[in-house]
Input
Amino acid sequence: MTNPTSDRAPDVTIGLDTFGDVTNDADGLPFSHARTIRGLVEEGVLADQVGLDYLGIGEHHTDAMPLSAADVVLAAIAARTEHIHLGSAVTVISSDDPVRVFQRYATLDALSDGRAEVILGRGSSTESFPLFGYDLGDYEKLFEEKVELFAELLKEQPVTWSGTTRPPLDAMTVYPHTASGSIPTWIGVGGSPQSVVRTARYGFSLMLAIIGGETARFAPFSHLFEQALEKFGQPPRPVGVHAPGHVAATDEQAVAEFLPAFEAVIRRVSRERGFHPPTRESLARDIGPGGALHVGSPETVARKIATTLKNLGATRFDLKYGMNGMSHASLLTNIELYGTRVAPLVRELMSAS
Output
């Protein structure tokens, strides 16, 4: 397959995100963790071949989502691809060392010839906190201090920094340096105005993580981000959207492949974290025209993505694909349809608006 870069609308970025969910083989049996990770490399190579702009891997530390070292997998994908940008979705900076995060992604940037990005976030799960010895009571302080340090590291100059969550740095230079002088960095925001303002203050780009409900309710965050950038004297920065979805030949097939797995995962998580599980009615609304789930045929998904981008003033869409229990074959079909049919139609619709 060829990479259709010449047909792209330059201001629209179409990407994929995955949490590395364990998927099933053709007989409906779950892959091992090792096979899941190798399968993700296959998916990344295919995403590059069909012309997608970005592949992000979210950090998780569970049996169902064993992608605890996303940068290693991204490096394997980088070695077999040429065009696609590669990064996190998200890196849980609160329970990591910002110096090591910078070094790992600067190394990925070298291996990929400048294609690395980072999306920082708190993460939607908290397994990494006890795993690495952090107190959840320090949740806010950990995130604030470590994002602040990471912003300094991105300048690729000697860093002097002190805080309460890690040892200080005194005029320390961190290596390797990147060829471009910095790593494109986003912050994933799930619903906190304070996080939107913080993103603007540090001059990062904004990734709106929308996993349920009406996407239009996030429009005020885009406006707040624009206002905050102006207040802090920052140049304009892009807004992106991360939302779950699945593409198949027809709407009915896409829903049949995606919904049972999605519903099972959300119900399991709701029991673990103590929130109300979704109802069939709420799931139907989320799959509907204004909802967060971008599920359907290529035309259905493309039109919904274009509407989401326009409503939120965004120029990037990352489809969170794959759920524990789905077949690996359906994910490959999803990626091929998303790259060859959804992405070109989204760009056409956005160019015409």
Notes: Residues 247 and 271 are 28 Å apart (CA to CA).
